[in-house]
Predict the 3D structure of the following.
Amino acid sequence: MRPFRYERATDPAGAVALLARSPQAAYLGGGTNLVDLMKLDVARPDLLVDVRGVTSRAIEELPDGGVRIGAGVSNSDLAADPLIRRRYPVVAQAVLAGASTQLRNLATVGGNLLQRTRCVYFQDVSTACNKREPGSGCSAIEGHNRDLAILGTSPDCIATHPSDLAVALAAMDATVQTVGPDGSRAIPLTELHRLPGSEPQHDNVLTHGELITAVDLPPLPFAARSYYRKIRDRASYAFALVSVAAAIDLADGQVRDVRIALGGVAHKPWRATRAEDLLRGGPATEERLRRAAEAELADAQPQSDNAFKIPLARNAIVRTVLDLTGTAR
Amino acid sequence: MPITWSATHDRQGLDIMDTEITLRVDGADHRLTVDTRTTLLDALRERLGNTSPKKGCDHGQCGACTVLLDGRRANSCLALAVAHDGAEIVTAAGLATDGELHPMQRSFIEHDAFQCGYCTPGQIVSAVAMLEEAATGWPSTVTFSPPDGTAGEPDTGPVDLATNPDEIRERMSGNLCRCAAYANMIPAIQEVARS
């Protein structure tokens, strides 16, 4: 690991000021991804600004009926929180579907959203990777791409975003609160992460020094009936091949509202707005769900080894939403 | 909090950033100077001579380095020592009291819940923490029933591990055993969960 300086910030403004000292500086939360990437020589910060004492570790109700999650809340505390479990079970389930308890105890909410792809080429400095080293090429497109993206890819990058939490938050229309050198702003979760395009080195829209301080969940009563289904190579402790976060609001058998987001298929949590639009205003039948899922996946561009993700994602959408409606198998 | 730095250089002429920290390990206080790059695992093993936490993968994938960090289980290989100044750490070696093995340690021996033993300290620390988490009502993916069309109040009470091996398997999934001694770990843990 390369040498680095370590500083502990005491408030958000101080953290932002410390980070501004170096273009290579990075914030340190739980460190579960960053420290690993530093060992692999993928991340090379010359200064770590520890923000665990800076951002809130509280989960609080907002005046509008929503819930604010401090960026410093551990993944474990988020998943165990009674308010989250009651109002947004999909969020708790998504967190618990990721990593292990040991990692969730260290990992923070802010850090979870900013974790890097687990594409094996990104993590291996001996290979070409446009995300790690812009312009060097993508080893995955003609390499091992079974785990990688099918939606929103570019000729430069087919990486997936690994967070389960972000998928559930995308379905819930969460908002990310940040503070940075240019002040504070609120970013819709669905706009935090970006598609790779010709600049896959940028995972998200945050500027250097911008710090996530909280994640806000809007009031969404029907989210009390929500579910996160994660499909992976083993039953636990693995990244998603495909995952689905879903919630449905049924009135007289008709879909009044529905939320569907996919994980493991794109460079960002993939909110399935096309499928949602097709489902609203009609019954949640298997046939309608299948057609909606197929429409969502119509633009999918599989690689040599991951075409299986298209039917897998379709079936996962259908099954997850049907289960929420109580339709017997 | 101000931190005092002393920069020296390694053989490549790179700056080495040393800082002084305090760790309470298995009940004893230690003051040590560490390079900022030192993980908690390396501080424990190489600096303090506590070889109970093991270095398996060194990337947070195997769980052999699991310790209790301020009361919670954590992968010590991914925690920077400098970021945990003042922390209280319990390793598997610190679970015994007054020369008596911890019930989980006894149960692992009685049930032959290991083969080579390399992952065992991490498994035992993890299992001890898991019982506490379940008693506190922490859920796992197994705790959440698949949806059936109804939205009920979540049961946030203690989770029964003694009669639910699937809960144990899920909650222990961060600890790998390459000898695959899992079959005997489950009854070993169940027995402690029952008592």
About this structure: Chain A touches chain B through 49 residues (CB under 8 Å). The two ends of chain A are 52 Å apart (CA to CA). Residues 300 and 322 of chain A are 23 Å apart (CA to CA).
